[in-house]
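Following up on my earlier thread - several people asked me to post the actual chain instead of describing it. Fair enough. Here it is, all 198 residues.
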Amino acid sequence: MRLIGLTGGIATGKSTVAQILTDLGAAVVDADALAHEVTAPGSEAVAAIGQELGREFVRADGSLDRPRLAERVFADDALRVRLNAIVHPRVRRRMLERAAEIELGGADVIVLDVPLLLEARQAYDVDTVWLVYAPEPVQIERLMARNGLTREQAVLRVQAQMPIEAKRRLADVVIDNTQDRVALRRQVEALYRALKAS
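Reply from S.P.:
Thanks for posting it. Predicted structure:
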């Protein structure tokens, strides 16, 4: 069994690569999806967020006010660190449990899709780290188009993460997503074939 850590910067195309890998037969465990699970209405994580960060982030129905929380954490590094301390350990635990279940089912390639993998690599014992890369100006433009953000909002979100060039230096494999989807798919297919053959 091979365990790939898939990461990237915001708006680099990581989700697209994860979908291509799923299409090729890899089992993908998505940290963002699990983050939504662990912060479901009424969850332990939401209770901790309300208690430690402020009740204004929890709606009357027990759900997170995600837009309000995002607006604040991308403008406040200390608040973001506190939020991550609540959410990330729960997501990591759930990811590793899910990967173990998938491995017991006989999967030969498991992909952990983790946006902040390189920031917390010691927590994930992966065989190799694949980074989906696009330069920062491209990230900003894509994020503005995709999420309807102002340039200032997009810049704050991009700069809240480790710089993409630093991630590029730390990754084992760099997938260049500066062209079209056809070129991206060709790269991922070639990498996956090589991985399966090794």
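The mean pLDDT is 95. That should answer part of your original question.
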